[in-house]
Amino acid sequence: MNNLLSKMLGCALVSTLLPLQFAYAQIEKDLPKNHTVSLTFHDVRDDVLKEGDRDIYAIQTKNLAQFFDWLSQSDWKPIRLKDIEEARKQGKELPHNSILLTFDDGALSSYSRVFPLLKQYQIPVVFALPTSWLNGNTQAGYEAYGQGNLVNWKQVREMQASGLAEFASHSDDLHHGVLANPQGNEQPAATSYAYLKSQKRYETDVEYQQRILQDLKKSYAVLKKEVGVEPKAIIWPYGAVNEQLEKLSQEAGFIFLSV
Questions:
Q1: Which among 98, 144, 181, 248 could bridge 79 via Cys, Cβ 3.0 to 4.6 Å?
Q2: What is the pTM of this model?
Q3: Mind listing the GO biological process terms from this record (predicted)?
Q4: pLDDT band at residue 47, thresholds of 50, 70 and 90?
């Protein structure tokens, strides 16, 4: 897929923002025209730095606030998915030093901690939602974040109405591993052909493609129904993607994909 999200950084900010800021200073010199940096976050908490808790997928609330404050005073320009779409379809140039911020998984902190900061600093972001998690159709979300720690659709719609939040798919129910071989190893559900233990065989090409396409179409439909707009992008769980997934995501209706 010929998308403009070709310069990617997946970062979990835990302790300090200074290394990240220095890194951005270097990227700023090297970033080609009409390219953007993408920075991915997950959970936002107040207890990340307590002894014994080194959650690499969470950032301290005060550190995120400091980052937003720094970003608002820097030369970096936060952009929206629609800016990238216009650059592709209408030939508009992206701002120099553009940056796309994403928050994966639909953690409740997206609403309770991130959203207030978005309003304070007027920074747009993309939230990638695994739709089955929000609908309570799987235990995976509860296992990842705990009972009651995911956003609900009412909160999603409130964020959407602000104009500061866009919502992408994080799949419907591919945010987990599948049995990938007879030895019992698990691999990301999106990229791996499942090993069917009871039948002692792997999924066929057709079975794999049907499983993935059905999931993507369901996620697309749920987001369109609940958020009220057609989702533009899918952000793959674990950053796991292959050429087949690119084609299937287009078939499901997504314009962009990102890791």
A1: 98
A2: 0.85
A3: carbohydrate metabolic process; cell adhesion involved in biofilm formation
A4: confident
